[in-house]
Amino acid sequence: MANLGNLDFVALDITEKNYLTWVMEANIHLEAENIGDTIKEGKNASSQDRAKAMILICRHLDEGLRSEYLTVEDPLVLWNALKNRIGSQMKLCGETIIEEDMLKKTFNTFHASNVLLQQQYREQDFTATS
Questions:
Q1: CA gap 16, 73 in Å, rounded
Q2: What is the pTM of this model?
Q3: pLDDT tens per residue, range 101-117
Q4: Alpha helix (H) ranges present in the chain?
C-alpha cells in the first residue's frame, strides 16, 4: 500500500467497493497505452503488450488481491477473474449478465436457515428474477 501515491489511479481495494470506478479507470489507461485489446475476447495481443497490461493491472490491485492472483499470467484471464468475482455489479459497466447468473447469485445469498427454500426455487427452474 506504500506505493499508492505513485499510482495513475486508485488501486482496487480488497473490499472491492471501488470496483466500478477502478474498472472504468483501468479501461481508460489500458486504451491510452494501446493495450486495451489484451483484455478483450478474441483479440490477439503480443506477449509484450500482455506483459504491459499485467503490470498495469497488478500495480493497481490491493496487495491482498494481487497475492490472490499471483499465478495468473494473462491479462484477459485476470480481467475475467476479477469480473466474475464481482459479476453482480457488471451490469452497471455495460456488460451483459445472463439471467441464470443473477439467479445463481440470488440463490447463493439465501440465509443458511432457508436452504429448503433455496432448493425449492432451484427445482422449480425459475427463469426470471423479481
A1: 21
A2: 0.62
A3: 666 666 666 666 767 76
A4: 19-32, 47-59, 63-68, 75-85, 99-108, 115-124
For residue range 49-104, list pLDDT tens digits in order: 999 999 999 999 999 889 888 889 999 999 888 887 776 555 545 556 666 666 66
For residue 2, give the amino acid letter: A
Instruction: At 56, list the grid cell.
Output: 498495469
Which residues, other chains included, contact 70 with Cβ-Cβ below 8 Å and sequence gap of 6+? none
Reduced to 3 states (helix: H, G, I; strand: E, B; else coil), residue 127 is coil
Task: List beta partners, residue 12.
Answer: 61
Residue showing cell 491479462: 75
**Can you tell me the distance from the alpha carbon of 46 to that of 50, in angstroms, rounded to the nearest whole number?**
6
Instruction: Answer left, alpha or beta for residue 125, where phi above 0 means left and psi between -120 and 50 means alpha.
Output: left
